[in-house]
Amino acid sequence: ACGSGSGSTGGTTGGGTENAKVAFLMPDLASTRYELQDKPLFEAKMKQLCPSCQVIYQNADSDAAKQQQQANSALAQGVKAIVIDPVDSAAAATIVKSAQSQQVPIIAYDRPIPATPADYYISFDNEKIGSMIAQSLVEHLKADKAEGGILQVNGSPTDAAAGLIKKGIHSAVDPSGFKLLAEYDTPDWQPEKAQTWVSGQITQFKDQIVGVVAANDGTGGGSIAAFKAAGVKVPPVTGNDAEIAAAQRIVAGDQYNTISKPIKIVAEAAANTAFQFMEGKKPAGKTTLYNTPSELFVPTVVTKENIKEVLFDSGIMKAADVCSGEYAKGCEELGIK
Amino acid sequence: MNTTTTDRQDERLQERAGVRGALTDVVERARGGDLGVIPVVVGLVVIWTVLQLLNPIFLSSANLVNLTLESAAVGIIALGIVCVLLVGQIDLSVGSVSGLSGAVLAVLFVGQGLPVWLAIAASVILGAVIGWVYGQLFNRFGVPSFVITLAGLLAFLGLQLYVLGTKGSINLPFDSGLVNFAQLDFVPAWLSYTFAVIAAVWLFASGFLHARERRRAGLSARSVSTLAVRSLALLAVLAFVVWYLGQTRGVGWMFVFFVALVLIMHYLLSRTKWGRAVYAVGGNVEAARRAGINVRAIYTSVFVLCSTFAAVGGILAAARLAAANQSSGSGDVNLNAIAAAVIGGTSLFGGRGTAFGALLGIIVIQSISSGLTLLNLDSSIRFVVTGAVLLLAVIVDSVSRRSRTSHGRA
Amino acid sequence: MNTTTTDRQDERLQERAGVRGALTDVVERARGGDLGVIPVVVGLVVIWTVLQLLNPIFLSSANLVNLTLESAAVGIIALGIVCVLLVGQIDLSVGSVSGLSGAVLAVLFVGQGLPVWLAIAASVILGAVIGWVYGQLFNRFGVPSFVITLAGLLAFLGLQLYVLGTKGSINLPFDSGLVNFAQLDFVPAWLSYTFAVIAAVWLFASGFLHARERRRAGLSARSVSTLAVRSLALLAVLAFVVWYLGQTRGVGWMFVFFVALVLIMHYLLSRTKWGRAVYAVGGNVEAARRAGINVRAIYTSVFVLCSTFAAVGGILAAARLAAANQSSGSGDVNLNAIAAAVIGGTSLFGGRGTAFGALLGIIVIQSISSGLTLLNLDSSIRFVVTGAVLLLAVIVDSVSRRSRTSHGRA
Amino acid sequence: MTVLSLRGINKTFGAVAALTDIELEVDAGQVVAVVGDNGAGKSTLVKILSGVHPPDSGTITFEERAVEIPSPAAAHKLGIATVFQDLALCENLNVIQNLFLGQEIRPLRLNDVAMETRSWELLRQLSAKIPSVRVPVAALSGGQRQTVAIARSLLGDPKIIILDEPTAALGVAQTAEVLNLVERLRENGLGVIMISHNMADVKAVADTVAVLRLGRNNGVFDVADVSTEDIIAAITGATDNAVSRRAQKGASK
Amino acid sequence: MTVLSLRGINKTFGAVAALTDIELEVDAGQVVAVVGDNGAGKSTLVKILSGVHPPDSGTITFEERAVEIPSPAAAHKLGIATVFQDLALCENLNVIQNLFLGQEIRPLRLNDVAMETRSWELLRQLSAKIPSVRVPVAALSGGQRQTVAIARSLLGDPKIIILDEPTAALGVAQTAEVLNLVERLRENGLGVIMISHNMADVKAVADTVAVLRLGRNNGVFDVADVSTEDIIAAITGATDNAVSRRAQKGASK
Ligand SMILES: Nc1ncnc2c1ncn2[C@@H]1O[C@H](COP(=O)(O)OP(=O)(O)OP(=O)(O)O)[C@@H](O)[C@H]1O
Ligand SMILES: Nc1ncnc2c1ncn2[C@@H]1O[C@H](COP(=O)(O)OP(=O)(O)OP(=O)(O)O)[C@@H](O)[C@H]1O
Ligand SMILES: [Mg+2]
Ligand SMILES: [Mg+2]
């Protein structure tokens, strides 16, 4: 590593992990998971592996250049490893380059960096997420013998991850036999925008809409609010991220599904891998993706049927957070305590 | 009206009386480019026609109902922006403040279980306090309001995230009065018509009394026929709007609330000493100071008003979405609110603008957004077209203003 | 200097000569609040001290090298913003234009395989054309620049998405000269020192020649000793900077490029007829028009310059990131560029500001951002602290300006 | 009775000493003309009296009490009304709005009609030639604006009126009306400070003449016993000056 | 030789007819005074001649050619230099910058020294009392600004100089210098249009007097054969006016 002119890095080069620093660079605030789940879980695991180590957490707020700045600053602080969820998978190549040129191992987290292989890649697959939520909805509609079309609410047009999810959704919706009535790229993932758009579509297509595939819980919530505000019945709406608010809507029967990523597992795996790198080892991946040793985890679609097991029994969420006020009744029905 | 009144004795003035006179006056002013909001309205009509041709749903009653409801939250924020722009300052933080206020509301109401009115009051007061702090910073240190509110933009965004804390997104219960107000409460048809009639009668009565007072004081005044025509026109327009929106769900209470705020602000700005002072400070702050106006108090009041409106807008936005989340108030709320004010004819340099400008401006913006949303374009094309249509809407207004400049009324 | 020169004959003027006189002058101006950029520098020193105390890495050579490189792209954009603000207008679209220009560069260079210089030229010309269109819209229709560039903001964002197409993100090859220029090319130490010496000698020589010319014309002039002290001070500062940055990687060519642009703009604004006209238009457009200045041409030139700088900034940003993507230029590029100009002392109302302001302003902003990045805070706290520090930096400046107002120099 | 008196007033702007050790006295019912060359500091003195600039040092005594005038509002409160040389009108407001700025009738529901009526009265009294009082001041001619500024100072109930070159832009008729007005004000017992470059006007209405030169007092004269030439000599600091030379040339032609 | 002549010029602002059917002639080497009440339309006429406003109708003949003056730049090109009543200076620029605005020496590398030297020359010539030419115009007194505006019109090489109330804010000495200047300009064969409310100045330097009243021509007089009273009567439209009444009152006192 490259400790630069300051005593705080301890001045040791090579494998020592005493007082070492590791950077954990997250991409945006559009989804709450990075701040609320990934970061604390990663930190906790790291603390357990290496009590004296320090985690440098940064969030790039959807700005690739800012992420580059954050990575540079981490390098200037002499980190021993970088775990990065790139804002822009392509642009992160620069970060990989500069980290590797300073012999700092770099782990791609959540999103791949195809152009310049990182040292390791740990993720679940965004495209897969898209196809899973859409597929679950389509199956539900078929089971209900619904007839009509589907609205598709994508994520931000300027977000690469949203592009992957969109691709996945299409892979499930296009061959489903349900007509894709219209789709929309929600600027900045804003729920308000999603609501406005869906409101417009309700006037346009009226009762033809049998389902809405929304790319995350925020836009899903916006879509639901649009139906409520129009005073019509809410069709099944998807989500993604398993936010508490989404869990509440599922419990209340407003939202059809969301998707729970085993963030705990992934974050801990990332911490493990990072720690091995810091110790100077070179962990081998389960598979190889994009020329990178990789490990992929499978997320779970959450619906009313399995919400209790997936989210509550597993301890991801606490009933107290979700089952407040008006949601208590729904929780009770589902046996969530 | 044929004996010359005190204010019409100068022989260079052309004589104009009665309905005919009023019309000539309008034509003359149109040629001189001094038309107030008329060009914006024309711009609006142009856009509406275009959008309707592109998608026949656009002018459907259901869509217009949506439009009115979607305009309210940002429109109220724009109303505050009009005030700060009037004194020649700016507030970049209205988005963050609205987001923060929504978050505080949700945390207090849902998280802490406080009664809704208390949560609302707390959010609104928070907004007022923020504005007060801006005012103090501005008056004490003379930091440009651009920088103060830029700092506020960041700080209150942070605070919003902090308040939402581990939850990130908080649902407001759909059956709460607040959410109902923003989503489902519509004015009953009979009441809407009553409102329309009251407005028209009031316009006539106040105009008539005012004219009588002026005539008694020996000043020229609008003739009864002009007044009657004017208020009948208003009645017709309002009745048509009510009838057309009534085809589906009618006029939302939230929109009525917005319009009421516009009317109140219009009154405050045009008929009170405070409003005069606001325009004076915006026109020439040194002259205002020398006239003995407490310029600092005016600045503070305006910042307070703007942040308060931002907080109210934030509450309504949260209510309409039935949720407060991390991205509430971010994105283009700031730009839309400022753009609505500017499109409605408010000058960025202070001293020129009206409360009605905010109403018209936000309707222009929401029309564009709603119309293009209905078209289901690719997002890249959608951005391009939005930009082009926005420009189109404003060119109409600007061209008429330009002719004003060339007539020496810069 | 003791015989009274033409410009110092008024008996109300206090006499000040030599180094001592220059110092008295500075003190006097400090009391009067007329200090140019000094308060911003003081603000910067305050921030640096605070940030260094919080994290000792902040002022490390490696971090400062990063800081210089990170400043360049947005700094260049801010330079363009200074020009539009000087004429009292605004450009909200610099972010989109920079993103578009990066995208066009990437598509032409990587996608189409054109030579890099051609791709750069195309992007820059595109920027210039955009500015020209703004100028035409502004001059022909008198649409407020706020609205024109807001429309541009949307339209060019759309165009950027369209150009990038389904790829969304395009990598620039690491071994291309452009990426090297932005990431790895540093000025050799000997050359840096040479630059420093040249700058100091040039400052002395030009000052000396100017002073001689003034003295010949019977005007008061700076004494040789003042000039010598001034250029030695510059030499010392520059040599220290070069030496300190040289501890790690040194001075990046991209930063040198930025500084060179600042110097060129400084020359254009302060030493040419065009620059005078820019300040005149910003100060009083009607007076400028009556003085026979082609006001429209000035507006157009300024819009062209601003968009061109935005395009150049976009190219450098893409080069530094080694990629152009959909979110390039979005986010806070606009706000940062405008804030840099404003923090550097440029007035939003036109007529006041300097090119150096952009340099100082962007360094303030990047310092805050870099310093807080090092602190490893929660995002919510980071936003709050960023806002607070920003305010702090500007309060120093504003307080001194305020004292200027109270001394009647508003 | 001395309404206003100044002692040792100093004011510098940057390197320029605009006022040095200024003394001035104004009695009730007295018209004091302050004259001086361009840049002599007359308007600076006016601005200090009306709270626009604070003096660097010196004392102001108003009705026998030492006072501070930190702001224009404070000056208004003391009863000092001022017509500034640069008029200080809001160009975006119309004539009525400017006239009543800060002293509107019925603050919470402005009484337009009363204000318009009163505006016409005031303007007629000054024989202003303003076609309409509902146009923004930006559309008025220079003299019309000056009339508005003068009319404004008559609202309220001042004890001292300060007129900084009130007739500079006025037509002959309006000038005559303003001089009449000054005389009426004196009769009503107000103190008037009038700044003017027009010696004829000064001699016509002033009781005493205070001369400023380069920011210093250069004599106070009783109008009755001083000739125009002497005043001009005090202003320019020499008996042989541009005015006297011109007069000679004219005579010799 | 007639340098400039106007025929049937009309201009309305909204409901106000500011100028109706105006005629005016100026010869080379002639000083034409334009006088009139406040709001009579004098400045509007000046603005039309200097390209600030376009006339609604009417023809302008310059050196025997019919011309259009669509912009101030066009007026400069024809050789019409104007001192505006509102001065039209840039407050943020200093004196030198304002003087040379639009006609800087050495456009690509401004020659500060030459401009400063020339500025001092011009200002001295007008006996301006400006302590420093490097302060922004915002810091100057009213008269100092007016001197700057007058000095500016002398740069370049105009054929006609239009002075809109050039001496309104000037001190006695500066006024005398400006009147000298006008005479020099006439001797150099320039046409001068001077607007003034000061009949003494008008009688001192003008050759002919054109009177405007409420936007219309109200007579053109040869200065030699007209009395001040007659001019005032033409301006006010009555022989019994505020001025004559004041004169009577003064006489009867
Ligand atoms: N705000 C200011 N900043 C700097 N200098 C100023 C300021 N105001 C006035 N001065 C200077 O103070 C001096 C006196 O100005 P002042 O306006 O009092 O003159 P005056 O006597 O009113 O002249 P005039 O007859 O031209 O109106 C001038 O030299 C002027 O340059
Ligand atoms: N830009 C404008 N917009 C509207 N009306 C205007 C404008 N400029 C002038 N006027 C009107 O035209 C008339 C003539 O104005 P002008 O300035 O020519 O008068 P003037 O003869 O110069 O008067 P003064 O002696 O007061 O300077 C006035 O009634 C004025 O209100
Ligand atoms: Mg003065
Ligand atoms: Mg005039």
Automatic annotation (TrEMBL), chains B, C:
Pfam families hit by this protein: BPD_transp_2
Q: What is its main location?
A: membrane
Organism superkingdom: Bacteria
Q: What is the protein's membrane topology class?
A: Multi-pass membrane protein
Q: Which UniProt keywords apply?
A: Cell inner membrane, Cell membrane, Membrane, Sugar transport, Transmembrane, Transmembrane helix, Transport
Output the InterPro entries linked to this UniProt entry: ABC_transp_permease (IPR001851)
Q: Which residue spans traverse the membrane?
A: 37-58, 64-87, 116-134, 141-163, 190-211, 223-245, 251-269, 297-321, 333-349, 356-375, 381-399
Subcellular location, record wording: Cell membrane
Stated role: Part of the binding-protein-dependent transport system for D-xylose. Probably responsible for the translocation of the substrate across the membrane.
Q: What is this protein called?
A: Xylose transport system permease protein XylH
Which source organism does the UniProt entry give? Nonomuraea purpurea
Automatic annotation (TrEMBL), chains D, E:
Q: One Pfam family from the UniProt entry? A: ABC_tran
Tell me if Nucleotide-binding is a UniProt keyword of this record.
Answer: yes
Q: Where is the ABC transporter domain?
A: 4-239
This protein's UniProt keywords: ATP-binding, Nucleotide-binding
- Identify a single GO molecular function assigned to this protein: ATP binding
> Could you confirm whether the keyword ATP-binding appears in this record?
yes
Note the InterPro entries from the entry. AAA+_ATPase, ABC_carbohydrate_import_ATPase, ABC_transporter-like_ATP-bd, P-loop_NTPase
Indicate what this protein is called per its UniProt record. Answer: ATP-binding cassette domain-containing protein
Organism, per UniProt?
A: Nonomuraea purpurea
